[in-house]
Every structure is written in C-alpha cells, then in structure tokens.
Amino acid sequence: MKLLVVTPITTPGLHVADEFSAMVDPDTEIVHTTLEVGPASIESEFDEMLAVPQTVAKIMEGEKNGADAAFIDCMGDPGLKAAREVVRIPVVGPCEASMHLAAMLGQRFSVVTVLDSVVPMFWNHAKVYGVAEKLASVRSVDIPVLELHQDPGAMVQALVRESRAAVNDDGADVIIFGCTGMCGVAREVQSGVGEVPVVDPVEAGLRLAELLVKTGLSHSKKTYPYPRPKSIRGYDFVPEIGEVEA
Amino acid sequence: MKLLVVTPITTPGLHVADEFSAMVDPDTEIVHTTLEVGPASIESEFDEMLAVPQTVAKIMEGEKNGADAAFIDCMGDPGLKAAREVVRIPVVGPCEASMHLAAMLGQRFSVVTVLDSVVPMFWNHAKVYGVAEKLASVRSVDIPVLELHQDPGAMVQALVRESRAAVNDDGADVIIFGCTGMCGVAREVQSGVGEVPVVDPVEAGLRLAELLVKTGLSHSKKTYPYPRPKSIRGYDFVPEIGEVEA
Amino acid sequence: MKLLVVTPITTPGLHVADEFSAMVDPDTEIVHTTLEVGPASIESEFDEMLAVPQTVAKIMEGEKNGADAAFIDCMGDPGLKAAREVVRIPVVGPCEASMHLAAMLGQRFSVVTVLDSVVPMFWNHAKVYGVAEKLASVRSVDIPVLELHQDPGAMVQALVRESRAAVNDDGADVIIFGCTGMCGVAREVQSGVGEVPVVDPVEAGLRLAELLVKTGLSHSKKTYPYPRPKSIRGYDFVPEIGEVEA
Amino acid sequence: MKLLVVTPITTPGLHVADEFSAMVDPDTEIVHTTLEVGPASIESEFDEMLAVPQTVAKIMEGEKNGADAAFIDCMGDPGLKAAREVVRIPVVGPCEASMHLAAMLGQRFSVVTVLDSVVPMFWNHAKVYGVAEKLASVRSVDIPVLELHQDPGAMVQALVRESRAAVNDDGADVIIFGCTGMCGVAREVQSGVGEVPVVDPVEAGLRLAELLVKTGLSHSKKTYPYPRPKSIRGYDFVPEIGEVEA
Amino acid sequence: MKLLVVTPITTPGLHVADEFSAMVDPDTEIVHTTLEVGPASIESEFDEMLAVPQTVAKIMEGEKNGADAAFIDCMGDPGLKAAREVVRIPVVGPCEASMHLAAMLGQRFSVVTVLDSVVPMFWNHAKVYGVAEKLASVRSVDIPVLELHQDPGAMVQALVRESRAAVNDDGADVIIFGCTGMCGVAREVQSGVGEVPVVDPVEAGLRLAELLVKTGLSHSKKTYPYPRPKSIRGYDFVPEIGEVEA
Amino acid sequence: MKLLVVTPITTPGLHVADEFSAMVDPDTEIVHTTLEVGPASIESEFDEMLAVPQTVAKIMEGEKNGADAAFIDCMGDPGLKAAREVVRIPVVGPCEASMHLAAMLGQRFSVVTVLDSVVPMFWNHAKVYGVAEKLASVRSVDIPVLELHQDPGAMVQALVRESRAAVNDDGADVIIFGCTGMCGVAREVQSGVGEVPVVDPVEAGLRLAELLVKTGLSHSKKTYPYPRPKSIRGYDFVPEIGEVEA
Fold this sequence. Notes:
Six copies of one chain form a homohexamer.
Chain A: E1 2-6, H1 17-21, E2 29-33, E3 38-39, H2 45-64, E4 69-72, H3 80-86, E5 91-92, H4 94-105, E6 109-113, H5 119-129, E7 135-140, H6 152-169, E8 174-177, H7 186-193, E9 198-199, H8 201-215, E10 232-233
Parallel strand pairs in A: 1-2, 1-4, 4-5, 6-7, 6-8, 8-9
Helix pairs in contact in A: 2-3, 4-5, 4-8, 6-7
C-alpha cells in the first residue's frame, strides 16, 4: 500500500516521513511532501486558502503516480472536499477522522488546539461532519504551530493543563489534539490526564486511510462528483480536469 | 458609499457593474471586478478553491482603496471567512445573506441552483450559518453557470418548475436562487410560482452590505481575528499581512 | 418610503419619532405611534398579550394609510406573526431582525436584556426563528424597562458588565441589546466591550424594513395566509377582515 | 377537584361541560366557560391574539374562585404561557399535553388539523415545547373549525384519510388530532387507521391536569414568574396584578 | 385498575407496595414484585442488562394475570422497549415519564442522580426520548442506591445541594430525581430549593400509567411490533412468544 | 493480534471464523463464538435483551484469555455499552462503526436492513451515536435474518432495489447493510447501485477493531467506568465484578 501524505505548508521539517511510517503497517509505504506554493503554517482561514490549491494538486498527482490513499497533514482538513472531487482514491483529513473516532470512544470529546484563532473552525467542521453534539469544547494552548517544537516540554505541559480543564470543566470524555504539529505526545499527555483517551489525529487519520484501502471503500462520487472541465487561469501547478474522468 | 463587488471568476461579462448599480441606492458607488487568477466558473469545491485566493486579495485591496464594504458575487460565498479575517469592512456573501433573509420571510426556504454537484455545499453552508432547520430542500435546474444566459426563457421556465416543486413537494415557503448568474429574474419567476417570495441573492447581498455600512456594523474580530504575519510562497498577487493590522 | 413604527405600550415618550428618523435614510418618513389599549411596558408574556391586539390593528391601519413597512418597537416582537397574516407590507420585529443579523456577524451571539423574567422568551424566539444554535446566552441587567432612562450611565455600565461576561464566560462573539429601550448606546457599550459588534435592535430592524421595501420582498403568504373572515367580539379597535383581501 | 375549562372562543356550544366530565374522574368537577371578548373560532395567529387576554383573565378568576387547575380548550394553546405567569395552579394546553404524550407512545407522531393556515404554528409549538424531532408531519383535513360538526361522518372520513397518509407516507407512529373540535372520535378514527394510537388532545389535556393536581406539581415559577404590577389601559375585564402575588 | 410495579432488582424492601399505593388513586390496586434473577441494584449498563430479561418476563406475566398497566421502578427504564413489544398494556418507565412531565413544567430541567456512572445514560435517554434540548444538566449526589436509605437526612441534604447548583449554575427550571430510591422526599427537597418544581419520578410514572389506562391509550404497535416467535435458550423464566399475539 | 468475534445468537453457522479472517490482516487471529444462552436470531428489542448478558460475559472471558479487542457480530450492537464497562480492550459494534465510517464517506447515508421491526432501533442508535442528522433513511428488504441465506440471489436483488430507492428517493449518498447476515455481498450490491459506496458493517467493524488495537486506543473509562461489585442472582455464566478492576 502506498500512502501519500501532504503536509500542506511550505516549512520543511515539521514532520518527516519516518514519523508517519512509525504509525502505519510495516508494509505501508509513505510518500511525503510539503508545498512549494502556500503558507509557512496554517493558523487561520486566510492561511488555509493559500494551502488548498497545491494540496489538491499534489493529491491529483499522487493518484496518477499510484498512491492508494492520501492524507492531508493539517487539522483544518484543507482541500479535503475539493480533493475528493478530483480523485477516486480515499482522501483523509485528520480532523474528520479523529472527530468520528473520538465520538465512538466516549460520550463527548474536546479539541485542544494551538490558538484561539482556529476555535470557530473546529465548531464549523463538527457541524459539517455531523458530530457537533458530541463536541464538548475547543480549547487552545496559545502556542503558534511553528513554536510547538521549540519547547516540547512546555507543549506537553500546556496540553495536559487544557485537557484536564476540558475533562473537569467542560465534560469531555475524550481529548483530540487540535494540531498535527502536536503529533507524537498522546501517550505522554494521556498519562497526565488520566481516565480519558487522547487521540493523535495524525495516527487516527493514517490508520483510517489504511482501513479504507483495505476495505476497498472510498468517498461517494454522488457527494463528490468530478468537476466539469473548464479553463483555469494562473494555477500552472494544478492539473487540468479531463473529460474522461467524469 | 463605495461598494466593491468581486465576481470571483475569470469569465468577463457574466455581470456588469450597471446590473449591481440598479439594485442599490443611487448614491452607492459600485466598483466591480472579476479575477485574473481563477476558474472560468464555479460549480464545485475544486473550482471554488481556485477562486478564493484572488477574491480575498481583491477585497484586501478594496479596503485599502477606500471601499466601505465588499460583496462576493457567487453563491458558494468563496473566501467569505478568509476575507473577514484580513479586513475590517463588512464582507457579504450572497448565500449567507439570502439564507438569513429568507429565514425571516417564511417558515422554511428552498434553494434552486444550477447543478446537482453543488447541492451538498448548500446543506453544509446552512449548517455553518446556523439555519439548517429552515432549509426545506435544494433543487437544481441542471444548467451550467455559463449556459444560463444562452436561453434566458429556458432558465426562467426551469426555475419556475423547480420552485413549484419545492413549494408543493418539499414544503418551501420561500425560494432562493442558488446561483448569482440567475440574477434579475426573481419577479418573473415569482409570478410563475405564486404565493411565495423569491429571493435574488445578489440583491439581498448588496442591500445587506449597504445596511451594514449604514449601521456601522461589521463582522466580529473575535470570530475573524487578523492572521498572524508569516511567509507566503507563490501568491504574488496576495498582499502581505502586516504586524500593525492586528 | 413611509415606515410605520409602533411602540406597543401606552407610556408616551420612551421613544420619539426623531430617534427613529436618525437611524434611517433621509427620505424615509417615520410615522410613529404608541398604544391607547395595552400595558405601560412589556416585561412578561402577560404584558405582551395586552399589547398585541392594538399593535396589529395599528399595522392594519398603517397599511391602509399607505405605509410601506411596519416596525414593532419591542424585543418581544409582539404581534409579529398575527400582523403578517393581515397585511402584505413587510412587518419587522427587532428580535428576529437582530438575531439573524448577529448570526451573520460572528460565530455566536448573546442577548443582554432588562430582567430575568424575559430570558425564556428569547430562547423560545431563537428556536422559532431557527437560530437557537447561534445563541450563546441571555443575560439581564436587572433594570425594569421604564427605569432604564432614569440613570443612563448606570444602564450603560450594566450593559458593559453583562456584555463582557457574555463574551468572556459564555463564548459570545456578538452582543444584541435585549430591549428596544436600550436604543442609542450601542457605540458607547461597544467601546467598553472591545472586539465584538454590539447590535442595536431598533437600528437593525428599521434598516431591515428599509431593505425589504427596496427589494420588494415581504413575508410569505404561504406561511402567513389571510385569516378567514369571522365575527369578533369586544375589540372595537380591531378592523374587520374582509373577504376581498384573501 | 375543580377543573376550569376555558373554550377560548365566543361561539357557544362547540363543547359542553358534559363532554369534558365524561373524560375525567367521577369526582372531578368541571367548570366550563367560553369568552365574551374574542373571536368566533381560532384558525390563525390573528384569531388567537384576540382570544388570549380574556382566556388568561378567566384563568386568573378561576384560581381566585377555587379551581385546582385550568385547561385551555384550543390546540393553539392560546395564553398558556401568560396564564402560567399570573397563577400558581397548573395550566394545561392540549397541544403541549398531547405532543408530549404522543412522544412517549411511539417513535414519531403527526398532527392532523383543520386548515393549512395553522400548520406552521404546530411546527413552532413543537420547537418551543422541545419535541420537534418527534414530529413527523402536520396535515390538514381542510374543514374550518365551525364546520367540523356539520357533517361528523365527513370529518371522521377525512381524519382517517389524512391519518393513514401520515402513517404510510410520513412515517408517523402516533396521530394527534390538531383541533379540539375533533374531540370524541378518536376511537372511531383509530379503528380506521389500524396499528397506531390516536390521541384526543382534549382527553390528554384534561387527564394531565388531573395528574398535576394529584401530584401537587405545577409550572416552574422560575420560568413563569409573576409579572411586575403596572398600569393597563383598555382591558377592563383583566384583573390587576397585585404586589402580594409575586 | 390493577397496576403492576416491577422493582427490577433482587434486593427486597427498597420499596414496598404501600409506598406506591399512597401515590395512586384509592381504587388502583398495586401488584408489586422484585426479581429473583438479576442484580442487587442498578448503577451501570452492566447491572441493567441483568435486570432486563426478568423485568420483561414479569410484565408479560402481569398482562396475562390481568394487569392494566405496568411500571418499571428504576430510572434506567430497563426493559421498557422490549416489554412494549411483547404486551399491549401500557408500560411506563419513570425516566421517560418524568422527563416529558418536567419538559412541560419549565424551560429546562436537570436530573440529580446517585452516581456519576449513570450520567451518560441520562443524556442518551433524553436523546432517544426526544427531549435532549430541554435537559440542562445531570448531577449526582455520589451515594450508591443501596446506601440512600442509610441516612435519609444526608440524602435530602445532598439532593438540595445539587438541585440548587442545577438551578443556579446550570440553568435548570425543574428538578427530576435520578433514582427511584429517592422516592418520597420531593416536597422536602423542594422546600430547600425554592421556586422550581421537584419531580418524583415514581409518582410521575405511576400517575402516567393511570392516565394511560383511563384514556385507553397504549404504545404504538407500529413502533413496538410483536417479536416473531423463535427458539430461546437458557431463559426458562421467559415466556414463549406465540404466533397468535402478532 | 487476537480478535474475539461474538455472534450473539444461538444459531450456529450463520457466520464462520473464516469469513471474518478473510476481512482482516493476515496476522490477525480470529476467535469466534456463538451463544449457548440467548435467542436464535435478533430482530427485536426483546430478542436483543436475551442476547446481551452472555455476549458481555463472552467478552469478559475473552479479555481474560488475551483477546486484544472484541467485535459484536450484530447490527443492534447488543451489549456494546455494558461490555465496555467491564473490559479495557476495545469493544466494537458494527452499527456504530459503520455509521461513523459512512458519515465520513458522503453527505448522508441510509441503512437497508432486514425487517421493519428494527427500523426505530437504527434511528435511536443514530441519535445516541451522535450522527442522526447524517442518516437519510432506514429501509428494509422484508426478509428475516435466518432466511437471508436461503436465497442469496433474492437477498442481493432486494438489497439493490432498496439501496437504489434510498439513493434516488431519500437522498442517500452511502449505503450501510442493516444486518450482519448480509455480510459478503457489498461489492455485488454496489455494482447494482452505482455511484455510492456500500458499507459492509462486519468488515467496517473488524477493521475498526484492528485500527484501535494498532493505535492503542480504547473507550473512555470516564464514559464507561467499571461497575461497582455487587451480588448477582441467576446468571451463573456471568463472571463476578472484582474490586481490583476498578
């Protein structure tokens, strides 16, 4: 199985392929890429709009190059719906994947994310994904994405603090990390929180992508039909939509 | 009052400034633009992602050039949230404006749009805008955007047919046109439907923009905070976010 | 444009026509009236029921006298639905108008009203108007309607205090004043609250009435059909429903 | 036990006290009244507003005269909330009572009422009463209230027809009559519909009133606080609100 | 009227028939039973599953022995749906009965129960019963079922404490006891809480059972059809389903 | 990985271990069991209650015997919540798993099940699982569980017929089989339906169980705490709850 991972920012090194490989089956091949066209990080709707076009283009190319599924490595799920329109392989976003997974693990879940600026986005995603009534709260650690790794101990400490508040004050039964940059510390945070599962959205999403490939399932082409071919200006990195695909 | 209208496609002539001017106060100045970078029309999430970056850029420029409000001339409301983050002037989308207006005019409303491919988008918008329980149905006339004006009589006939079905079969009390390309025929369609109001989303949105300017209201900066400044690659047409604005 | 404003109480002087005129277009004529039959103020469902019949009667008379739209100057929207049944001109209530407007300005809104006794009414209105999931909280300043103007400074101070609590504790992104008697201090309160819009429901409603007249839209006669003519006893101030109107 | 029944119209004879007595315990005394001030029948929000003031006045008087509970004999539940504010005895409306009862008897219920004009009211009531997701549909037999008894056979036939459609086409598991004028034919209609319960809202409401008196429960004075005393003009039949009651 | 009460645990003496008789009409005969097969008390889904089979069997036997209705004396409503499938007499659960009753008494209600372990169950019940939006909160006194009666004063004190918190902090307008073992102290607790009704779910349920018998109503056989007869192994105390009943 | 599968009926041979093994990773060991105590099949709440106790007991034993996860092979998810209380290993139900999976694949999903008698159960499950607004409809093929395999061709034909109706008439974008006895024909049905994914709930559930074991996640012990130890009568096949586990 070949699994394309698009980290939809132009900053290299936030994630490396080995981190993803450690989270999937031994025989799942990870193909990892970042963007040449886009924002340094994503912390707003404005940042996200800049990430979407090439993220989708990379997924189109990935399908042509034989990828069995694609994973978008950002909790905003940028380009998730657009990408599903232009490919047949499963496309997985960590927000959708982790929200549905968390919904199955307990009564209600909370998201602990980077900054207050993305809080409304999580509520809107929960509404569109159909799980809003399972979302107890969205909290932030108030650390920008690219500063998360400057002091991993401080990040873990902040995640524990906000997760405990989500459990004790907001009624959360499950915690989801609200940024893929928080990847890799779920067990550590869980030991500090106690009785509730802590979902790493990267792991949740990668495993869901594997699950979909193994079951042969992908998104509904009734919901995500191929776009009609038409002229596009100014996006030389976006492949054309052909007549045949529809 | 100066009102910027961005028709977020690269096809010229779908709308001209005079059409908008006819829908606003005599002393409201319309500044109209289309895109140089983007899709020929918008009929999918894929098309929409290509329209968003320059739509937002045009609105940023519009604010710098003295616009009092901006209107995005497409029922997908492309870039609405991102644009609100980067400006202080009101930004209005016709989908949000017409859904809330229709919600006030009757018990439930239906949207009659161009193609089945955008039906899920309207349901998702209604959820995020908070009016999903007022949405009775979304129907389509099965005519692509750029073919709407090839045979205006056929368009009106199809709009009447689907509007009647929405009223009689789906329980709609109000009709909203689901594409800004249908602009200008609301009264004609209404006379064919009968007892229910037919909302032209362009008129609704332009008038809402005027209303906001007159009341001095704009979007909440708590919901739409300024993005943090950061490096962007490959979008030379997008202005930089400065430190001062936040 | 002629705009009828009914202040649905018998106390004169809470509002004068000039206050309304200052909130509308220069060429919009305000016709203002209070009630001869009704309560001194409205702070309960009991008070409201006493205000409704003559409010509706005044709007029926207003339509006959050439009004282009009617505005009910009370946040309970007393008589809104009944009035829409008996006239064709747009009838606007400040609660409905400001809730839908606020819903467009930010993620969630709070209402800050006069007394705890009307808190359930706002929740019920939000449900019927279809925006309950956008309503973060309803708070009160604990000042009766007719005492609001005794100490305007105290009123503003209380509004700022409760608005801040709504923003910080309840998650509000937008504030709506919960009584039309609070009219005129939105900017002052906003400067004390900070980053969130403060909606004056009188201004919102008057401007919406203008918008509807300008677009030619009014309520759906499918939702609000003319009542069947029938005998009425004891309300000599209520016009008869004629056969012709239906 | 003394149970006040207010038939909130001025037309005598639609219901007589014996009909109510046949539906309650032998030792429950029925005190029945109609209105001197109000509409001939209720088929609109307009009609309803005319019924509310004296309905509430009659309930206030009833409490003073020793009634243990009050029942409002109209499916619009006119004055239900206002009456609860001004008395401590339980006040029951047939719409609220039958909707909650039906919700307990099966998965979803439908209302079969007189005219299309009151259909939106039932949806709004279901929202405010908190049972909207249990409401499958609202249908009408297209017979005005005061014509229901002109041809009882035709009424039953129409009720059977619409009830069957509700069950087979709309997914109803329980039927509620949507007008108290349909009182007394539930068993007949049920035998024509088959496997689903048919709720007579008059019987449901009267029995609920008895239940409340027997359990000593009444409405929450936190939700329905006594109105503050104030001057009222033009309603000589409405008792004054005294200071002591609050 | 003969009313079967099943206390679905094997511990004798938690309730005795006289307690139930004191809550119903003088001529209502109470037939009370506990279980021989089941748990000592119910404080989890695990306990509940052990209570259900014989509870349902007892209700089947009760119907054969002439009971007019059955009441399940546990707030988990164990076996409510299964029992309704296999009998025609009304089957009442105290959770469903008290939630719908409370929904009619005020804007929102809270449940005060024994232990945190059953809190999610109440939320799930409210969702299935269709009244989730009326449920303000679920709180616990942290006393196991079988210890409630060891110190009745402490139980009342704890109920008052949590009920006050529900009213003041969670917005409750009505309180429901969350365990039938709390039966009998509603008035005492109410006097300590103040302005909100306190619903004893045993009394609510018994009175609802009487109401249903008197109206001739029972659950919908469309929602609760007779099970198809089939072989059952290992439950010698469960009667066989016969062909004739369907 | 060792995966326990409990087919919660006493009828042998509906499923054999090899069918499950074909749906999981090669190195996942399937341990399959049916019940000695329970119903021949599950087509009602009554049947389900008889299946739950030993299903839960088998899962408790499975955990003691080293199972890494458990799968309940019935779309009613019998015992899912009770089992989660008494074990720490993940317990997966096919209904919950397939509903959340389907929710991620398209806008709305429909369930096509065996008999009308289980239709309400699916709606209730969707409410409790938090995905009710994604459920378009529940349809049945009108074939009892134990007759599904008598004529596999007829079963497939009926599944195609009802799936097409769900897509065309009810607005479904994804189909879920509503009985685990329909296992194995998803691809065949999909080819007859066209553009929408068809989810086999057995495959979905087994793959979700694997996913959970691989990620180290399991249900929240805050939602599903260990039951308090107490005496149980009449269930010699149910292990005792020990003090230590909590």
